[in-house]
Design goal:
247 residues, alpha/beta, seven-stranded parallel sheet, 9 helices, 7 strands, globular, binds NADP nicotinamide-adenine-dinucleotide phosphate, NADP, 3-oxoacyl-[acyl-carrier-protein] reductase (NADPH) activity, lipid metabolism, NAD binding, SDR_fam
Length: 247
Amino acid sequence: MSDLPKVALVTGGSRGIGRTVAEKLAADGFEVYLTFVSRPEAADEVVASIEKAGGKARAFQLDSADRDAIAAFFKDEIKGKADLEVLVNNAGITRDGLMMRMKDEDWDKVIHVNLTGCFAFLKEASKIMGKQRSGRIVNITSVVGQMGNAGQANYCAAKAGLIGLTKSAARELAGRNITVNAVAPGFIETDMTAELPEKVVEAMLEQIPLKTLGQSGDIAAAVSFLAGPGAGYITGQVLGVNGGMYM
Ligand code: NAP
């Protein structure tokens, strides 16, 4: 047993689903390292809330679209300084629009943050976890990566790609006792979905057999399970947390 902190790294842990995941993993006993890109005050608030509850956390400004910065972060903050037990690839953005009008920059940005960023974190984490011969990786994909969604070609492509990445990584890393799974949220109440017009929300509810929107706690519970002792024999899976929207 090393004396290094037992860290769970949560990307985009400053708001929404990532915040609740960070708080849950801290309550589970991990020291949480969370990343954010634009709102330091939100990240500080999460750290304060975790510390108030008796846990430990640190926040890092780290753009998931910046591969060099991600490599430098692992070199400076993780390698030799922490036992990286859990990685949650959660940071994500939307730049919605119909395909024929979608700007190339909106396609590129969503793929860079939501897919390439996850690859960069996975690649670095797998080196550390590989040496430890243990680790849990959870990638936050989306129900629309499974179903498709008009107006979200970039986002759906990235999230579907993340499922392929999850399964390939699960096969590559299983020999080192590292599990890699995905959680696919349905329609969860966060800032990301708050912008949607009421009509769209009503139409969404029509598609959800459980007839209610999900909460970030529903996703945090799934992540906590996959990161916890009961899930050691589960890898390469996509756990839908979607109220039955996709079966
Ligand atoms: P959110 O409320 O918009 O929060 C996004 C988080 O990601 C924030 O902490 C944000 O930090 C961070 N972030 C954004 N771009 C980043 C970047 N380039 N580098 C580092 N951090 C970045 O989103 P959410 O609804 O909680 O979604 C979280 C994840 O769940 C995403 O991957 C999303 O695709 C997925 N998801 C959400 C839903 C849903 O219904 N909400 C459904 C399916 C899947 P800043 O505050 O600094 O910008």
